[in-house]
Input
Amino acid sequence: MQIILRRLRSEDISQVIEIEKEAFSPLWVTTPFKRELTNRYASYLVACGAAEPEEPTPEGSDSEQEEDLPTWRRWGSKIHGLLGKQTQSDAEPQDIAGYVSVWYQGDEAHITEIAVRESLRGNGIGELLLIGSLRAAVEYGSKVMTLEVRVSNFIAQRLYEKYAFESVGIRKGYYSDNREDAAIMTTCPIDTEEYQRKFEGLQESYRQRRGEITPVV
Ligand SMILES: CC(C)(COP(=O)(O)OP(=O)(O)OC[C@H]1O[C@@H](n2cnc3c(N)ncnc32)[C@H](O)[C@@H]1OP(=O)(O)O)[C@@H](O)C(=O)NCCC(=O)NCCS
Output
């Protein structure tokens, strides 16, 4: 069982909204994901467990009972198994582990949101989502990737810095819930050989540590 990236589908939306609500402030305006599905100038990717072919199970076994569970619960338990640790909460396991949204504006690919289910953080899923969005941006023809991040969000900043985002300015009082400033972060040009070499090196380290990175489906 492997974590894969795929494009957002309408059946994922309720889980993605759950993750969005958990990750961002209660005053965060919910993204109109359904409408965004048809936005040609955006990419919405989710990280989830890859489906495995069903194996026949003997009648009356425990596995047969598991088959009665909804798909998202069966996949969810496999994601937790794959990641080698149990959730820290008693929440039900889920199949969508995280998502990222990117808007394309001129030469720029702008990450509008990236979030991982809280109980699954620290397992490489956020990094996988960032890799997927950088690959999508290069494929789209974007020249740089940008985003805003709370100045206090050191975890996200460390992730972005790993992929050579640099802080290039501040938007004062950008976040409406507490008027916190946003750091504006941007990559150097991503369509250069230099960045692609660095990016390939980072992906290779990721593969060695976390496993294969499958193409977005
Ligand atoms: C930011 C977020 C997406 C990271 O996802 P994640 O799956 O937990 O991160 P990963 O396990 O892939 O870690 C990737 C890198 O992030 C950084 N990172 C992750 N957890 C960290 C921690 N606890 N402390 C410091 N750095 C951390 C590290 O650079 C790490 O690379 P490393 O493993 O080589 O050290 C996740 O914390 C999240 O959903 N946060 C809430 C939403 C949010 O703040 N989104 C960003 C909005 S701009």
Summary: Residues 17 and 30 are 7 Å apart (CA to CA).
